[in-house]
Amino acid sequence: MTATPATPLPVTPPPAAAPPARAAQAVLPLPVTAVTCLEDRAHIERTAVADLAAGVTRLRLGPVSALAVDRSLRAEPDGPARVLDARIVRSWTPRAPLPPTGDDSPLRRRVHALEQEGQAAERLAERLAARLSLLAQLASDLLREVGEGAGRGEPERARWSRELDRIDGERDAYGEQLRAARARTDLLAEELAAAQRALEEAEEEPAELVAHVELTVETDTAGPVPLRVSHLTPCALWRPAYRATLADGRLTLETDAVVWQRTGEDWSGVRLTLSTARSALASEPPRLTEDVLSLRERTGEERRTVEVELREEAIGSTGPSDEGLPGVDDGGEVRVLRAPAPASVPSDGRAHRVPLTSFDTAAAGGLAAAPELSPLVTQVVRFRNDAGHALLAGPVDLVQGSGFTGRGALLFTAPGAPAELAFGSSDGYRVVRATEESRGSAGLAQRTVVTRTVRLHVSRFSGPDEQDEQVVAVRERIPVSEVSAVEVRLRKEACSPAPDEVDAEGVVRWDVLLPPGGRRTLTLVYEVSAASKVAGL
After folding, report:
1. Is pLDDT at 9 greater than 70 in this prediction?
2. Which residue, 362, 364, 422, is CA-closest to 386?
3. SS3 breakdown of the chain: % helix, strand, coil, rounded to 5?
4. How far is it between the farthest Cα atoms of the chain?
5. Which residues pair with 20 in a beta bridge?
6. How remote is the C-alpha of 338 from its chain's centroid?
7. How buried is 289 (Cβ within 10 angstroms: 0-12 exposed, 13-18 middle, 19+ buried)?
8. In whole angstroms, what separates CA 298 from the centre of its chain?
9. 106-152 vs 157-202: helix crossing angle, rounded to 10
10. Given this model, what pLDDT does residue 16 score?
């Protein structure tokens, strides 16, 4: 047979593959350069410079806070480059239970040593307890042998006494060792708890959940490209705070921002901006639901009577309520404040004050009293807001010549508007309040008339070196009626002296001039009259 040579088959070369993207580079640092702290979160801005080659490059930047909101991520290059894809990638790396090394702090090594010593003490206590249990079993067996030998008439008194003495001695010795071991265990547990508390306050455990930003960037020319990355992060908030210093008729008001953040990364030397924007509020209107109204005829009893009641109502304002609801009072408009210098806020969850502005202005002092609320007379300082921006509602640290005198509250104040601060009570003044009430009827319609008399006794206890007179603004209130069946009338002819002012909210004011050691009595008389069909007065 002759073999026919095989015809070689044509080999088709594989299709040319598209040029793959460049391999992932090393992680580029992405530090925080600017932070806009909102009411309950923060907008983080980061910058980096990447050396890119022409084409498509995949970058890995970070690490960043694992709390970053994915949908808020935004990356923008400065230049002709284009960002094709941006995402946050998280990786979880649990910390292995390894002993501390030389790079760890002495406090961490101390905690590890106490843990090891505590475990050794617990094992020793367990061995001693097991030994005592065996000795108790041995004593029980020996006593049973004594009983059986005595019953058979074969006493071994010398051996039994020797064995019992040996068992009792060992039980006493091991019992003392067990008590000492347990006491040592308790002591080590207390020392370990104290060391762990100190470690938690001084150091932080390395993060197990770490996030990075992965960018796919395309550029036509090679070279360095600056990148800006921004995102939202929870666990950060701020509130305004103030420090007011009163000296020689001048008031210095310092505005600070108290910032808390626990985002998992420190803010070091960042451009800090404070905003009252509420990004958490829903942008969609609520769903409409049916609201059914129905009419009915009033009963005869309802036609004959009008139910009224006396209620307490705070004068309306835009500030926070007495319940201390969270939030920043910004007057209904978004306010933005900027720190004049780079700020640093560590991620420890504690309050950090950042100075914002400060101004000095003339202050006019005065004395005010509200006897219905307190028998004290308060020193009130009035000034003008010359800060150049609105003063948000917040606490104020009050400082006078003697130092820190207390803490007050500042309400929202527009730029250039007047404001007041209470610098505590004055010990040289007292107000005593007494009330009387009489009830009668008047007119043919037999209207019920309630007459209330309020007497205020204002006293000044002055020292021998005080010679000037002081004005005390005393405020009292009268009811304000909301129904035509009830009328409230201030009897100015019976008031002594007549009030200097009565506003629409029913607040009555006197400006009382008191000499050193002086006393004044103020009398307020008003009537509340109601028709006969009014009930509940």
Report:
1. no
2. 362
3. 20, 40, 40
4. 148
5. none
6. 21
7. exposed
8. 51
9. 160
10. 45
For 325, residues 6+ apart whose C-beta sits below 8 A from its C-beta are none
Do 44 and 261 meet the contact criterion of CB atoms below 8 Å apart?
Answer: no
**For residues 458 and 512, what is the distance between their CA atoms, to the nearest angstrom?**
9
Cα 46 to chain centroid distance, Å, stands at: 26
Amino acid at site 314:
A
- Token match 């060992």: residue? 170
Burial class (CB in 10 A: 0-12, 13-18, 19+), 514: buried
Using CA atoms, how far residue 3 sits from 6, 8, 10, 97, in Å, is: 9, 15, 21, 72
Domain definitions of the chain by residue range: 32-95+208-233, 106-202, 236-264+332-417, 429-535
- The residue count of the chain comes to 537
User: In this structure, are residues 309 and 371 in contact, taking their beta carbons and an 8 Å threshold?
Assistant: no
Q: Is the pLDDT of residue 392 over 50?
A: yes
Convert 212-233 to b/e letters by CB count within 10 Å (16 or more is b).
Answer: bbbbbbbbeeeeebebebbbbb
Burial (0-12, 13-18, 19+ Cβ within 10 Å), 398:
buried
How does DSSP classify residue 393? S
Cβ neighbours for 44, distance < 8 A, ≥ 6 positions apart: 32, 34, 35, 64, 65, 68, 230, 231, 232, 233, 263
Tokens representing residue 316 in the block: 């309306």
Give the pLDDT confidence of 125-174 residue by residue, as tens digits: 999 999 999 989 988 888 888 888 888 877 888 888 888 889 889 999 99
The first and second tokens of residue 423, run together, are: 């610098």
Peptide bond preceding 106: is omega within 30 degrees of 0, i.e. cis? no
User: What pTM value is reported for the model?
Assistant: 0.67
Q: What does the block give as tokens for 430? A: 């007292």
The token duo for 196 is 């762990």
Tokens representing residue 436 in the block: 């009387």
Q: What does 170-204 look like in DSSP terms, one character per residue?
A: HHHHHHHHHHHHHHHHHHHHHHHHHHHHHHHHH--
Cβ–Cβ < 8 Å for 112, 183: no
Q: Which residues of 351-387 are buried (b: 16+ CB within 10 A; e: fewer)?
A: ebebebbeeeeebeeebbbbbeeeeebbbebebbbeb
Q: In angstroms, rounded to a whole number, what is the distance separating the alpha carbons of residues 255 and 242?
A: 5
- 327, amino acid identity: G
Q: What is the DSSP letter of 478?
A: -
